[in-house]
Specification:
rod-shaped, alpha+beta, 55% helix, five-stranded antiparallel beta sheet, 508 residues, Beta-Lactamase, five-stranded mixed beta sheet, 12 helices
Length: 508
């Protein structure tokens, strides 16, 4: 029990929701620290620029009040004393340096006399003088060569000749350290409060948003798991937008298609089983007849006369022909369903093919006193199709019409011009097909219902009520021609099968 609780707890905290929450927290902490650092740097620059703007005239004021001179290249000590007095009066935290025209430090007033540079860069000083302190510029710190400080500067003239500069560092090392401590404490207090408030607010808002997002995502996961467990009717409710909506719609479409494919597979499997059963039955019937007659011939070999032997051999021959046709139909239908047969279309006159097929079936029909009536329209143009495959269609339809017509019946085969198409129709005066069987007659190895089968009394012991594979082959051949077979039938009145082929167009 404890192990289960620990496992569930680990699973809970390893979920996407908590991963997103942890990522958000780390991101906000990083942004908070970056905010504090950037704010501290910005505030420090603000105070430095403010300090320089406020004391931009300080160096010029010292020059005006003290008027330092450089007799014989040396700094007048009296001038330095005045500068010291002025500095203490104005701002004891500043440092004053007297420079020559090259930037060399001639003398200075600085706490503890800790000056490490002997010369400062004149470029920032010249820029400061040129802009009159209106632009924030940093210069060298003689006490800390690695630092840049805000400053004030002014030129020193004697008899209109430039003799040097007063260079005032506005923030001494001691002042800078104290200011940094104050600024650091201020920023930490301000930034710390801001960061904490921002973190808490953003984290709560983020957790709420993530909860709404992952709630729907968890619902999707739950549906997918139930679907995996066999609940194939499960569907994701579509109530979001964006990617999750697309995911839900895609899954629902996939699930529907999968369910449809499963139903088709089940149907196909049922048809396969039925086909095997029917084929086994139809194969067993002629095989049983052949076996029986051969066995009888062997038993009566010494007593059979020539007439009996001929009769037995004729029956065996019919059975072998039935077997040959059945196996051939199975092979042909298998190739059609595997799409191994491709139509080789050409232009031909369908009326000539109709006449030819009628003549071939005339002898078979006459044995049962069935009349074949070809009705040919002389205005029918050439069609564009595979002539051998269309001939196979007509043969199967004629075989079917003759087989299920009563003795003395009529089978009509006719053609009609319909502009861009030519219609071919085969009609018989047989018993017809029950209405419930009409949608099924083109299925592979469909059998007539038993009630209708009783109405047929054929002398041929090999033929049964099965319509065989002929109509299934007809349907497949017409499908690869992009054509459709149509059937109309009424009991005790007959059936009519029709299809259309496209008229041949030059260049097609």
């Amino acid at each position: 029990m404890i192990d289960l609780l620990i496992m569930n707890r680990k699973k809970f905290f390893s979920s996407l929701y908590w991963k997103m929450a942890a990522t958000l927290l780390l991101l906000m902490v990083f942004i908070g620290f970056a905010y504090v650092v950037i704010t501290a740097d910005t505030v420090q620059m603000y105070f430095q620029e403010k300090n320089q703007r406020l004391h931009a005239e300080l160096a010029a004021h010292i020059v005006q009040e003290v008027k330092p001179t450089f007799p014989q290249g040396n700094v007048d000590e009296a001038s330095m004393d005045k500068i010291m007095s002025s500095m203490m009066a104005i701002n004891p935290s500043i440092e004053v340096y007297l420079l020559d025209t090259s930037g060399k430090i001639l003398n200075y007033v600085a706490p503890y006399k800790k000056v490490k540079l002997t010369k400062v860069d004149l470029e920032p000083i010249l820029a400061f003088v040129k802009t009159e302190g209106q632009r924030f510029i940093k210069g060298d710190d003689p006490r800390n060569p690695e630092l840049q400080k805000e400053f004030s500067a002014a030129p020193i003239y004697e008899a209109d000749q430039l003799i040097g500069y007063v260079y005032v560092v506005l923030a001494s090392e001691e002042y800078d350290m104290a200011a940094q401590d104050l600024i650091g404490n201020y920023i930490m207090r301000l930034g710390g409060k801001t960061m904490v408030i921002t973190l808490i607010t953003t984290l709560l808002a983020g957790l709420l948003i993530f909860w709404f997002i992952t709630r729907y995502l968890n619902q999707i996961i739950s549906v997918v798991k139930r679907f995996k467990d066999g609940h194939l009717e499960e569907r994701i409710p579509v109530k979001s937008s964006g990617e999750l909506r697309t995911l839900a719609l895609t899954f629902n479409e996939m699930a529907a298609q999968l369910l449809d494919n499963i139903e088709k597979i089940k149907t196909t499997e049922n048809l396969r089983r039925e086909l095997v059963a029917n084929v086994s039955h139809d194969l067993r019937t002629p095989l049983s007849i052949i076996h029986g007659y051969v066995e009888t011939m062997l038993m009566k070999a010494d007593s059979m006369n020539g007439e009996q032997l001929s009769q037995y051999l004729q029956t065996i021959l019919k059975s072998t022909e039935r077997l040959k046709k059945l196996v051939g139909d199975l092979f042909e239908l298998s190739k059609l369903e595997a799409q191994e047969i491709k139509p080789k279309k050409e232009a031909f006159f369908i009326t000539e093919l109709v006449q030819d097929v009628s003549q071939k079936h005339k002898l078979v029909a006459e044995k049962r006193n069935i009349t074949i009536v070809p009705v040919v329209d002389n205005n029918v143009p050439m069609v564009h199709a595979d002539v051998s495959l269309i001939e196979r269609v007509l043969q199967n339809l004629m075989d079917n019409a003759i087989k299920f017509s009563a003795d003395g019946g009529i089978v009509t085969i006719e053609t009609h011009n319909h502009g861009n198409d030519v219609e071919v129709k085969v009609t018989d005066t047989g018993r017809g097909i029950p209405e419930e069987d009409i949608p099924l007659v083109f299925d592979r190895y469909f059998n007539l219902t038993k009630s209708n089968a009783a109405k047929f009394n054929e002398e041929d012991p090999v033929s049964k009520t099965s319509v065989g594979l002929g109509l299934a082959i007809v349907k497949k051949i017409l499908e690869i021609h992009n054509a459709t077979i149509h059937l109309t039938s009424k009991l005790n009145k007959g059936s009519a099968f029709s299809f259309r082929l496209p008229v041949y167009q030059i260049g097609s």
